[in-house]
Design goal:
about 0% strand; about 120 residues; elongated
Length: about 120
């Protein structure tokens, strides 16, 4: 019996998940860099060294994770695992600034990136 919907193969499903994770990592990378500039302009609690450092860490691990996935590195699950952890910390650091649109956007993409990266890790287990 023919079905109107074709099932995607496991490889196609994994590739779609990888592409979505790459996009989330790149968006998180970009948003964290924009947020660093925003925080430095705001000053005060936004610009504490600890806050800026976690944003920098998050941006860099997101860039690295995207790079590992784009190159098809056998080690991408490791970078995704660390990326998910750092993204969660970064989201938790940005979330208290809930009235601030830029900070909330950063927290949101960090959480989405963490979810995508966790899915990549689970795929490799």
């Amino acid at each position: 019996m023919l079905h109107t919907e074709e099932r995607l193969s496991s490889d196609e499903t994994q590739d779609m998940a990888r592409q979505a994770c790459i996009q989330d990592c790149l968006e998180c990378y970009s948003t964290c860099l924009e947020t660093i500039n925003y925080c430095l302009r705001q000053g005060g609690e936004h610009a504490t060294p600890e806050h800026i450092n976690i944003l920098m860490d998050c941006a860099e691990i997101c860039r690295t994770s995207a790079d590992f996935m784009l190159r098809g590195s056998l080690f991408h699950a490791y970078t995704c695992d660390v990326c998910a952890e750092i993204c969660i910390v970064c989201a938790d650091e940005c979330a208290p600034f809930s009235a601030d649109e830029q900070m909330q956007a950063c927290a949101d993409i960090c959480r989405r990136c963490a979810d995508s990266c966790e899915a990549m890790v689970e795929e490799m287990e």
